[in-house]
Specification:
- The chain has 2 domains: 126 residues, Periplasmic binding protein-like II (D-Maltodextrin-Binding Protein, domain 2, 3-Layer(aba) Sandwich), CATH 3.40.190; 94 residues, Periplasmic binding protein-like II (D-Maltodextrin-Binding Protein, domain 2), CATH 3.40.190.
- α3 packs across α10.
- The N terminus is likely disordered.
- It is globular, with a radius of gyration of 22 Å.
- It is α/β, with parallel strands linked by helices.
- Strands 8, 9, 10, 11, 12 and 13 form a 6-stranded mixed sheet that branches.
- It contains 11 helices and 14 strands.
- Keywords: Signal, Transport.
- This is Substrate-binding protein.
- Belongs to the bacterial solute-binding protein 3 family.
- Pfam families: SBP_bac_3.
Length: 273
Amino acid sequence: MKLLATVTLGLSLGLGLFSAAAHADQLADIKSRGSLTCGTLGTSQPFSYQDNATRTVVGYDVDMCKLVADKLGVKVEYKLLSVAARVPELNEGRVDILAANLGYSPDRAEQIAFSHAYYVSPQKLLVRKDSGLDTIESVNGRRIAATKGSSSEREIKRIMDKSQVLGYTDSSAAYLALQQKKVDAQFASELVLVRLVLQSPPNAPVTVIDKSVFDESWGLGMRKSEPAFIAAVNKILDEAEASGEAAKLFDKWFGDATPYKLKRSFKIAPIAG
């Protein structure tokens, strides 16, 4: 009986050690294999999109992932995801980190960990110039397009409670619905909407309503069970802010030398939630 108890205890300890080894610390695992797998959209210029000349994925989100990988001393690999697949792909371990227009919300923060905010996005409404709609109040009660599964879709349903919100696969599909008059407005980040204004044909002009519906902090997404990795990523972001490297990345993609000509009105900092 004593021998059986000893064998059982030995097996239990052995299985416990095996389990601990099988679930290695993510930061150590990334460094051991020499690569960081970053989930990104690939469809959201200038955050993450395919460069036609090089056929590679480029953008602000892409560079943020490369920044993290470089500071960890590993190479970066990108996996293109749909908006709806971002959180499941992360939590199922198919990517290490998300840089994918990931807006903070209390609900989403229960599912994943957010890094410090690396971008703050005014969320606005896009309308056809001939619509006669020029305020947030005038749009409430109308049909509004948003990207399906995004925080924008969830928040616009909450804020514009008189409106019918229709979900589309991405911002391009939502914009097409606006031009086809299937919806009266499109809701997205200011930058996405500015890009659509620049691309709109002269015979179908669109305009962004000046006032933002709300401002949304974006963070890199990580699994909540990996405190060492979360701390390492936040340290990298904080150091990039202090050195000016983060500001240079912003200017590269959004500054005066770009079509957007945006001014950086935020600093990388913890998200208040």
